[in-house]
Amino acid sequence: MTRILHILDHSLPMHSGYTFRTRAILKAQQALGYEVRGITGLRHTAKGPATEEADGLTFERTAGEAHGPAGYREWREIGLFAQAIDQTVRAWQPDILHAHSPALCGQAALRVARRHGIPLVYEIRAFWEDAAVGNGTGSEGSLKYKLTRKLESHVVAKADAVVTICEGLRQDLIARGTPQDKITVMPNGVDLALFGTPPARDAALARGLGFESDGAPCPVIGFIGSFYDYEGLDVLIAAMPELIARQPGARLLLVGGGPMEAALRAQAEASPAASAIHFTGRVPHHEVERYYALCDIMAYPRKRSRLTDLVTPLKPLEAMAQGKLAAASDVGGHRELIRDGKTGVLFPPGDAAGCADALAALLGRRGEWDRLRRAGREHVEARHDWAVNAARYQDVYQMLSRIP
To answer: Which NCBIfam families match (predicted)?
Structure first.
């Protein structure tokens, strides 16, 4: 049985889009008959044993700490991670190393792959220099940005095969000079086994949030996730007065938190539509479905940037899998997931009036909701179900098994 060692930034039991994609990949590969195991670097910050089982998956942890000035600290981090990977390779004897971005994981895996003569797959979920710009921890064109990009390009050049989550990332790599036949697109997806019958709407929760009018449910637009600037939630809040003017019963539900939370709350409090905007703060992961069940439309108003044009997010797919309507800004990452008017609606990025127009029109076309929901779910089943898409890894692994 082929053994695949996945080299990861962090993993379960931590919760993030990164860990959920990892879980889906490993579970799907187990179902295909592979033996899988993960190993995380120093950025897995949850406390736990050196070898940990989470949701039926085994993860090894890297011990130690990396200190020092920027650059040296990351190089030391790579060194400690490579040592831990090397120990796991000697003990577990994997057939293939499968590293996942960021490039720190890829570089650590590359050292071990070459030492032991094991094929290396490098999978890019986002360009982390662009993600740092998006979440406010970096700036485009800075020394850190350039060094991160250079390291990623090095790992891509040396890896035996490269996987990306979308066409936008693939085209960017080709423009950098990566051969087309070296890159496989593994679309972002969901584990449909986790999305059975959606939970019923919690009437008591809805009443507590003010989502009823004269005893009837209000139409609810929701966002559940992290509050980063690139998500465009300020645009969504700015759209609410015009939306309320056209659809007086509409409500906005914002679940989560992050760097923009204080600014967004202040913006909402100053809005003429303040009474229609509700923040819950962060909620436990097992509570998230209760809030999804309150929403009719899930809104994703991302602003245009390199990150949002190149990378497909996971959240719209989860929304469609749960039978929710998806409304999203017309950026490259969303266009790969949503066909306007077919599986959801798209509106101009950074445009509050355009956002309000799209949402008001969608709320006014209730007769089309069942068709859109059904089309969205069918799109996910056909193109973004991990149980189906994970089979593409077989082609990549079989190709690598023939490398002399």
So the answer is: stp3 (TIGR04063)
